[in-house]
Write a structure and sequence with these properties.
CATH superfamily of the domain at 3-115: Transferase(Phosphotransferase) domain 1
CATH architecture of the domain at 3-115: Orthogonal Bundle
Structural class: alpha/beta
Number of strands: 15
Distance between the termini: 31 Å
Radius of gyration: 27 Å
Length: 482
């Protein structure tokens, strides 16, 4: 059960994501992430305890950091910190399979927990507090039950019942009171945490000016120093820095406190939800600090997009749930990749700019402007396209075939006729039509016409027989059906 289920809170799709995370953890490790001595203890662990890492549970086996990031995000305590849809999780799992950097970097991925004994001690103390409260509540409940069975308590109740009509009280028990108090405490903890984080952010913005980054010299070497807020995190930083000729070093760190990096380090930020509430936190980056930004724009969308537009060195922008004008993004002259997930923004001003024409990679889901967006893309530059919309017209499909440099295409929903038209993409190497759920077996012959196809994701796995698959691979010997 997810933390919100244990607390009796409303559930949504993110609850299913939590369940998937538990299933993945058990499938890969052979253990459930939380196993208590009783159902109640397990429920409390789901609400309070940090999930273990796979590498901690199965230390003798190699474990991908990326899969740990994905599972860690699925098992986030707060629903808003998990994947917001099965499609988002699916996309990250596909990236994991392809060896790409996953987007799940926001959660508290504890890369150095083994060296953080002091932090563990604090967490242990915090876990002991609710256990002490539970013991006290059980003791008080037991004492109350004993007192209730005494004659004096019955007389008091009988005398008061004539004054106050409380039929529900007759069915209440010490157990119900205990459960209510645990739920109230859980809800209060979440609210307290959010409120504290907001207060810290407000104080930080009031008391700090200038940028996060500065250049310093130590031991004869130059470093780029980032001084992020100490009391809260603005997200997760993924960095790739050169260590010697032709070699780079990658890593992840929470955007909190001080981080020292090589001046030429390429930095990616997965911004936390607090930046959506206080977009000025993003304005503290210098224009040249970030190469890649993943940010949610569901709150204060206009102000957040304005802050983002000042980060002129951005090469990749992953913007989720934008709901306002994207006009100011035209300032991002170095942008090569733009991802608009669950986009309800007004794209008309973006279409009037030259931003889309400079892109090599474009992805959009949930937009009603597919036709206009496709027209704005430059056929001589676009190499990768992901579009999941309600429908595509014949003109849309024809427009896509003009992208002669296109190597990767994720599209849906389309028809078998649309697929036939798309065979004009002579350089296509990766094709994802899984969301189209095509069941026409004739498309096997159509797929053979993609001469350079190496990777295929389709819903046909259970629809075509082994002979058809073998015949497909004879024409396309390098093809992987995923």
């Amino acid at each position: 059960m997810s933390p919100e289920q244990c607390a009796g809170d409303p559930v949504d799709e993110s609850t299913d994501i939590y369940a998937i995370g538990c299933s993945m953890f058990e499938a890969l490790s052979g253990y459930v992430p939380f196993e208590g001595a009783s159902a109640l203890e397990a429920a409390i662990m789901h609400q309070e305890a940090e999930p273990p890492l796979l590498s901690e549970v199965i230390p003798g086996k190699p474990c991908s950091r990326s899969i740990e990031l994905v599972i860690d995000k699925c098992l986030a305590k707060l629903p808003r910190d998990r994947y917001q849809s099965a499609k988002e999780l699916h996309l990250d799992l596909e990236r994991l399979k392809d060896g790409k950097v996953v987007r799940a970097t926001e959660q508290a991925f504890r890369t150095e927990r083994s060296n953080e004994k002091s932090e563990k001690s604090k967490e242990l103390k915090l876990l002991l507090i609710p256990l002490v409260i539970i013991v006290l509540l059980l003791f008080v409940g037991g004492a109350g039950a004993f007192w209730w069975n005494s004659d004096g308590s019955k007389k008091i109740y009988e005398s008061q019942s004539n004054k106050i009509n409380t039929p529900a009280a007759e069915n209440s028990t010490a157990g119900n009171i205990f459960i209510d108090q645990v739920q109230q405490r859980h809800n209060s903890d979440i609210l307290d945490h959010d409120e504290a984080e907001r207060k810290y952010a407000q104080l930080y913005l009031q008391s700090h000016s200038g940028f996060y980054s500065s250049e310093i010299v130590g031991n004869g070497q130059k470093y780029k120093r980032f001084d992020f807020p100490e009391k809260f995190s603005i997200g997760w930083v993924n960095y790739s820095e050169p260590v010697r000729a032709g070699k780079t070093q990658t890593g992840n760190a929470q955007a909190r406190g001080t981080i020292l990096l090589n001046p030429s380090t390429r930095i990616r930020l997965r911004a936390s939800h607090i930046t959506s509430i206080y977009p000025d936190l993003l304005s503290r980056f210098r224009p040249s600090d970030l190469d890649w930004l993943i940010v949610d724009a569901s709150q204060n969308s206009a102000k957040l997009i304005l802050s983002v537009s000042r980060l002129t060195s951005l090469q990749t922008l992953d913007l989720n749930h934008a709901s306002t004008s994207l006009r100011t993004l035209s300032a991002l002259k170095n942008l090569k990749s733009l991802i608009l997930l669950s986009c309800e923004a007004d794209t008309s001003t973006l279409l009037q700019s030259k931003l889309l024409s400079q892109l090599e990679y474009f992805a959009a889901t949930g937009t009603d402007s597919a036709s206009a967006l496709l027209k704005a893309l430059n056929p001589d530059k676009i190499k990768s396209l992901e579009m999941l919309c309600r429908s595509f017209s014949k003109a849309d499909i024809a427009r896509i075939t003009s992208f002669k440099k296109l190597e990767k295409l994720t599209i849906g929903p389309i028809t078998s006729v649309d697929l036939e038209v798309l065979t004009a993409l002579v350089n296509l190497q990766e094709l994802d039509i899984k969301s189209s759920h095509l069941v026409d077996k004739k498309i096997v012959s159509t797929l053979k016409k993609f001469e350079k196809l190496k990777r295929l994701r389709t819903s046909l796995d259970d629809e075509i027989n082994e002979a058809d698959q073998n015949s497909l691979r004879k024409i396309l010997p390098d093809l992987q059906i995923l």
